[in-house]
């Protein structure tokens, strides 16, 4: 793999790790982890000196027990409203639904009268589903007439811990603001909250970040520890100072009302107290908002990039030490964002960091392993090449040394000297070609050399190889026979193809008994040239055929034959044929000989001439 390809592959791995981490962050388990982190962060917030601007008048168990229970709720509520109004609150919000005209006539009349006397009164409404459509369940007109505003008490059922509340709900063509929001507006002399574009609500001098979306305008509730005053409806006169000038929420806190809301602190509070918590969030003016998704993408991408760069530039324990810092940073980012009033999902950066670190470390580990294997392979190949060179060059060197020694020691005739000189010259050229072939094969295998692209006929290659192999065959009394030789033209490196065919011929001669034949044929079939060398030698079994092209592999019969060899030649033949875009086929049977076939692309002379002419015209 080239350096550029390796870099591209590594970048693709890091990008895939980033995408996987982001995708996992959208799954429900990730959302649960994000909620756990949010709840823990909210619970760990340092307590600040804050004077509550709201209070709760609780119709508690004691109140219901003393005043007749839930059947008298409207009479009880009327008394609580009257006594609370006497304490001069800034606004008075009721968290008891009043949509039905119940049997308590005296209670209804008392409550209506109390409402008419009350100042800055806000009454509740809720959403109900009728025949599949959402409708507003408003207070009875006799009660609603006295209200300065109506505010909804709807809670998002999908948010089990009420981390966010809907400030706005629309149904039946009517929009209603949350009870706490309407209370804040009335308490600060506003007629109603105002929309300040799609992402903000203004009321009472406070700008509330609440982006309009398909799920409505929602606001994170920044819950306070138990500091909001809660006064029993039986003890209002004794605690008037706790209610004076504040927004007071009146509601049932007794278990009989079945109105409890789970909050991020891990416990439930009465619904009326949750409205007070919403009010305090608005009054404090310190809001939590979601970090923009583009910011989330940017930081997660930076974590993935950091992991990638660390393992690209470092290795060993320094890389892993820096990776631990990246993992720590992925945890620190959401915490730091929360300190700056931004809610950053916890799971996604942690997932991206872990997956990216794991992916980068794994890639580099396997890359190092691959480099090590490649280095060992190169070392092995170098050793094999030396062995091959030593084996192949032994024959011409022996001939040169023997001829020169004879010429030195003996007084030879001119004709004999001429013969030996020609042999030395021929073997020297043969040795030079062999060295060049050796270098070419090595450079080709290493990817450092492109093959020659020349046209040549297979007949010429076969003729050259037969002439070179003839002396070897004659010494063993083996006949070299040619069968049908196709008139075909190849495009490639003629010298390498000559070496491959010569190697097949000499192997056939080497492992064939005296008095046998070695046949060579060349057949052109549908654009493929099949050059086959058949012998009547020792042959091979099926198991040996599977390994025959492996470097240094020699069959048991070859070892037992006494013929010298290194097991490299056939491996080089296969390399040469493969680099020409071809393949090798072998068929053999023990004791009956073998057939090695080189299959490469070729053309008939007519087709080659036509293509050459077309190429010339394009040129």
Describe this structure in words.
51% of the residues lie in helices and 19% in strands. It has 619 residues and is of the alpha/beta class. It has 3 domains: 11-36 and 291-373, no CATH class; 50-290, no CATH class; 450-609, 2-Layer Sandwich (Heat Shock Protein 90), CATH 3.30.565.10. The strands form 8 sheets. Strands 1, 2, 3, 4, 5, 13 and 14 form a 7-stranded mixed beta sheet that branches. A 5-stranded mixed beta sheet has the order 20-22-23-25-24, covered by helices on one side. Strands 9-10-11 form a 3-stranded antiparallel beta sheet, covered by helices on one side. The longest helix is centred in the middle third of the chain and has 63 residues, at 347-409. The two termini are 34 Å apart. The mean pLDDT is 86.
List keywords for this structure.
3 domains, 619 residues, 51% helix, Heat Shock Protein 90, rod-shaped, alpha/beta, seven-stranded mixed beta sheet
């Amino acid at each position: 793999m080239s350096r550029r390809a390796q870099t591209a592959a590594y970048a693709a791995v890091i990008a895939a790790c980033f995408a996987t981490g982001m995708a996992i962050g959208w799954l429900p388990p990730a959302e649960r982890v994000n909620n756990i982190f949010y709840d823990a962060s909210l619970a760990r917030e340092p307590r600040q000196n804050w004077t509550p601007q709201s209070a709760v008048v609780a119709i508690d168990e004691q109140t219901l027990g003393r005043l007749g229970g839930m059947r008298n709720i409207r009479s009880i509520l009327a008394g609580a409203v009257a006594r609370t109004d006497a304490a001069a609150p800034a606004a008075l919000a009721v968290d008891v639904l009043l949509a039905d005209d119940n049997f308590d006539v005296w209670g209804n009349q008392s409550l209506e009268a109390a409402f008419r006397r009350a100042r800055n009164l806000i009454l509740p409404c809720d959403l109900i589903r009728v025949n599949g459509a959402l409708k507003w369940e408003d207070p009875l007109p006799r009660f609603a007439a006295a209200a300065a505003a109506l505010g909804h008490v709807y809670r998002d059922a999908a948010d089990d811990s009420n981390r966010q509340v809907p400030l706005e709900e629309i149904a039946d063509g009517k929009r209603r603001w949350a009870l706490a929001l309407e209370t804040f507006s009335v308490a600060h002399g506003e007629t109603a909250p105002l929309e300040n574009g799609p992402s903000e609500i203004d009321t009472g001098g406070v700008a509330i970040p609440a982006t309009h979306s398909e799920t409505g305008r929602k606001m994170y509730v920044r819950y306070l520890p138990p500091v909001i005053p809660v006064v029993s409806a039986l003890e209002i006169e004794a605690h008037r100072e706790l209610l004076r000038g504040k927004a007071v929420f009146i509601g049932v806190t007794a278990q009989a009302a079945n109105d409890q809301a789970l909050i991020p602190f891990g416990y439930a509070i009465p619904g009326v107290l949750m409205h007070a918590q919403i009010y305090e969030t608005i009054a404090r003016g310190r809001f939590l908002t979601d970090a923009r998704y583009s910011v989330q993408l940017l930081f997660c991408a930076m974590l993935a990039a950091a992991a990638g760069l660390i393992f690209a530039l470092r290795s060993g324990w320094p890389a892993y030490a820096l990776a631990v810092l990246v993992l720590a940073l992925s945890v620190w980012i959401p915490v730091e964002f929360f300190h700056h009033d931004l809610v950053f999902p916890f799971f996604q950066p942690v997932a991206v960091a872990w997956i990216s670190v794991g992916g980068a470390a794994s890639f580099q580990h396997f890359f190092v392993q691959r480099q090590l294997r490649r280095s060992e392979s190169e070392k092995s190949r170098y050793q094999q090449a030396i062995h091959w060179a030593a084996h192949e060059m032994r024959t011409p060197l022996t001939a040169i040394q023997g001829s020169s020694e004879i010429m030195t020691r003996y007084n030879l005739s001119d004709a004999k000297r001429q013969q030996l000189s020609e042999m030395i010259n021929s073997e020297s050229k043969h040795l030079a070609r062999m060295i060049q072939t050796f270098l070419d094969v090595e450079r080709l295998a290493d990817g450092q050399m492109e093959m020659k692209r020349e046209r040549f006929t297979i007949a010429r290659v076969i003729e050259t190889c037969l002439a070179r192999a003839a002396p070897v065959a004659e010494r063993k009394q083996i006949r070299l026979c040619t069968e049908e030789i196709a008139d075909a033209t190849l495009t490639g490196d003629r010298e390498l193809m000559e070496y491959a065919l010569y190697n097949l011929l000499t192997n056939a001669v080497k492992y064939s008994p005296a008095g046998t034949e070695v046949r060579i044929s060349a057949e052109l079939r549908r654009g493929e040239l099949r050059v086959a060398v058949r012998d009547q030698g020792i042959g091979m079994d099926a198991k040996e055929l599977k390994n025959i092209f492996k470097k240094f592999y020699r069959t048991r019969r070859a070892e037992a034959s006494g013929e010298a060899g290194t097991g490299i030649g056939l491996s080089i033949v296969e390399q040469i044929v493969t680099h020409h875009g071809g393949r090798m086929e072998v068929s053999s049977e023990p004791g009956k000989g073998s057939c090695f076939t080189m299959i490469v692309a070729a053309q008939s002379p007519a087709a080659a001439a036509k293509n050459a002419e077309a190429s010339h015209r394009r040129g």
